[in-house]
Task: inverse folding
């Protein structure tokens, strides 16, 4: 679920869809996004089964593009709302705008502390991407990077004390949705 919710515009689009009544132009203005970028994101979300592009006969106005959330999209919108609340609680900006950020934080919440443990928990993440996300999250102050010498020198990654409660709550809330 978290990979389909990642990307700079996925969470904002899911949250804006209803308030903009599914219409393209109001959504574009609300999100302050270029038409091409919004179009690309809507197509990707449609391919992932999150929304449906209404045909001219289904729309309120046949000439105006309009989208509605699918059943899966409604579930993901609920998750997007939960993510938005967690991001506010964390105070590091929109972490969901980059792939794997939230997944890394959730893996750390489940006490996967070593690089390989995190990678195994996330399965599809590449070592390079995981390394970049761990460094970025460390630089933001969301995670702590510790050195251990047992069984051999290596890094341990842990949620920073201020991030623990919002990430724990995100985990609980997402689990209740799924």
Result:
């Amino acid at each position: 679920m978290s990979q389909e919710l990642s990307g700079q515009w996925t969470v904002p689009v899911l949250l804006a869809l209803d308030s903009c009544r599914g219409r393209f132009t109001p959504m574009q203005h609300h999100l302050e996004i270029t038409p091409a970028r919004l179009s690309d994101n809507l197509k990707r979300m449609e391919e992932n089964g999150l929304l449906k592009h209404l045909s001219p006969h289904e729309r309120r106005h046949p000439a105006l593009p309009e989208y509605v959330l699918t059943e899966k999209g409604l579930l993901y919108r609920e998750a997007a709302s939960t993510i938005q609340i967690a991001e506010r609680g964390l105070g590091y900006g929109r972490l969901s705008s980059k792939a794997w950020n939230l997944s890394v934080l959730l893996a750390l919440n489940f006490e996967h502390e070593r690089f390989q443990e995190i990678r195994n928990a996330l399965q599809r993440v590449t070592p390079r991407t995981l390394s970049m996300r761990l460094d970025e999250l460390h630089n933001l102050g969301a995670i702590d990077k510790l050195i251990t010498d047992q069984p051999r020198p290596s890094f341990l990654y842990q949620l920073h004390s201020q991030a623990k409660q919002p990430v724990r709550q995100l985990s609980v809330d997402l689990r209740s949705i799924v």
Notes: The chain has a mean pLDDT of 92. The longest strand covers residues 143-148.
